[in-house]
Write a structure and sequence with these properties.
Length: 182
């Protein structure tokens, strides 16, 4: 199933201090308190702190803009300034943000750590790529990507209904892998 970013309504962050677009959630129609995994794209236009998500493992990657510095639990800093490079952190961490220069958009993967493990990967090699069975979502971050259900453009996502994708020259995808825990 192809998901167009324009079809995902803007909604407030859990703490109400920013906005996001939920791209996909599992199980379908799960809420903020009962998802196994969730993918969203956040609009970060101020130095607002991130929402707290106890029990959730998070991964984030810069999509657009010059990025920001995250200060986690008042002592560990990470600069999220290189596009498409995932950074993992605990959802219960206290995260303060300092924008580098203007607003940004970032890709977010959240996984309930008691139920699953998740991984966010960046792929940018042109050509055909086989998808492992644990890949639950492909996000086109730049360029175009062909799938068995149609073409993705920057901002689009795909819940795989096939076994491969083809990246055009210059395309970048973020791939979400999920492994359920027994």
């Amino acid at each position: 199933m192809i998901i167009r970013l324009s079809d995902c309504p803007l909604q407030p962050w859990k703490n109400g201090l920013g906005s996001t677009r939920e791209i996909a959630v599992h199980p379908a129609c799960a809420g903020i308190d009962d998802f196994m995994w969730r993918v969203s794209i956040a609009e970060v236009d101020s130095a607002a702190p991130f929402s707290s998500f106890p029990g959730i493992d998070r991964q984030i990657a810069l999509l657009d803009g010059n990025g920001f510095t995250m200060t986690l639990d008042d002592d560990r800093a990470h600069s999220l300034t290189t596009p498409f490079t995932p950074f993992a952190f605990a959802g219960e961490a206290k995260v303060a943000v300092t924008l580098v220069d203007g607003p940004t958009r970032d890709f977010n993967l959240m996984v309930r750590r008691a139920r699953a493990q998740g991984e966010l990967q960046c792929r940018d090699t042109p050509g055909s790529h086989r998808l492992a069975p644990d890949i639950v979502l492909v996000h086109c971050a730049r360029g175009t990507v062909d799938t068995s259900e149609g073409q993705l453009h920057a901002g689009d996502a795909w819940l795989p209904g096939g076994t491969s994708i083809t990246l055009a020259v210059g395309a970048v995808v973020l791939v979400v892998r999920i492994t359920a825990l027994s």
